Amino acid sequence: MRTQVGIIGAGPAGLLLSHLLAGHGIESVVLEARDRDYVEHRVRAGVLEQPTVDLLRASGVGERLDRQGMVHEGIELRFDGAGHRIDFAALTGSTITVYGQQEVVKDLIAARLAAGGTIRFEAKATAVDGIDGTRPTIQFEGGELACDVVAGCDGFWGIARDAVPAGALSVYERQYPFAWLGILAEVPPSSKELIYCSHERGFALHSMRSPQLTRLYLQVDPDDAVDAWPDERIWTELGTRLAVRDGDWTLGDGPIVDKGITPMRSFVVEPMRHGRLFLAGDAAHIVPPTGAKGMNLAVNDVRILAEALAKWFKEGDEGPLDAYTAACLGRVWRAQHFSWWMTSMLHRFPEDDAFQRRLQLAQLAWVTGSRAAATGLAENYPGVVGTRG
Ligand code: APR
Ligand code: PHB
């Protein structure tokens, strides 16, 4: 098999890249290890920044997003048993849209297949060769794909990054001493907006997927297995952490239809290109989910990559491809800092003493009490700063 751009991975990065390239008249083949049903139902993050929504809409995959996405003008930070709203619309004129990552994936798969695009499911890539030359190849279970360029969009656990010779990549990494237990519950959300809650027992997050589906997270021990968290324990813990002092709020519960534990890490490789291999999305960088940046960064990478590839294929101009890493990294590191900052402000770290907790509470009081500080959050969370370059 032969194509212009061989794409490994049918997550948001790989699928959107294939879709954007098609818009430029450039052919691609997407190789995905899992089956279609699996990738369409894998529950992941769900917050889209405005620039992400704009891009999906402009490229023709915004129809269902516009109908079903929930536009939020702010979030709540809850600590010390009281809620404090950060009003994005008032502070920076921006909004976010809550729409599940797997819904974006479904829309992109449908668009690619309707346009006659090729996505090979259950076609796990096993090796990438020849990236230092002009005819790279991807070996996959079921065949070989020859291409002009390889896009490694295969997530953190993929194989594309390993094709880069040892020593050519610098890795920047931080592990966090906790994980997130995430659940999806068949119950209407208990709040109109997301609630980020800092509690002595650990972080909790109230999010949603639809007027009937609530998404909730709890900070847990990184070694915890899902079995350690029967439904009843989850609801009790969520109720305790999210409780408000005046008792004027209750968390609705319902059947839990999905449950999973995700470790938390910050990770970046530089550069994001080696020869004819380009890394995008989680293959190149991971952020802790507290800033809701993961999918938005993946979308930004492939926006830049698709334009650079179009210049190269059409005009032979290699400049934008040479500038790919630099064009992505400014935003990647802005998101890394913001995600680390939100994570540190809201979670309980094992080494934290009473002094540290007082510092956290003082910081939260400042962020929610000062217009200047709140504006910083309202610039970063919806993607007002760092979205270009
Ligand atoms: N061959 C083919 N496909 C592979 C391989 C392989 N060897 N290894 C991994 N994959 C596939 C995975 O099954 C997955 O469908 O690559 C895809 C990678 O998709 P994502 O993990 O969703 O990564 P990305 O597209 O970069 O999107 C980033 O995902 O993890 C979230 O929070 C993160 O929202 C962010 C988004
Ligand atoms: C989600 O809805 O899954 C979600 C929302 C906000 C986050 C992380 C995840 O910061």
In short:
The chain is globular and about 65 Å long.
Helices and strands, with pairings:
Elements: E1 5-8, H1 12-23, E2 28-31, H2 36-41, E3 47-49, H3 50-58, H4 63-68, E4 70-72, E5 74-79, E6 82-87, H5 88-92, E7 96-98, H6 101-114, E8 118-120, E9 125-129, E10 137-140, E11 143-146, E12 149-152, E13 170-185, E14 195-198, E15 204-210, E16 213-220, H7 231-242, E17 256-270, E18 273-274, E19 277-279, E20 285-286, H8 294-315, H9 319-322, H10 324-346, H11 354-369, H12 371-380
Helix pairs in contact: 1-6, 1-8, 8-10, 11-12
Keywords:
389 residues; alpha+beta; FAD/NAD(P)-binding domain; D-Amino Acid Oxidase, Chain A, domain 2; 2 domains; eight-stranded mixed beta sheet; six-stranded mixed beta sheet; 12 helices; 20 strands; 36% helix; globular; binds adenosine-5-diphosphoribose; binds P-hydroxybenzoic acid
Provide the list of bound ligands, each named once. Answer: adenosine-5-diphosphoribose, P-hydroxybenzoic acid
The strands making up the biggest β-sheet line up spatially as 6-5-14-15-16-13-17-20
Q: What is the structural class?
A: alpha+beta
CA-based shape: globular
* Tally of separate helices: 12
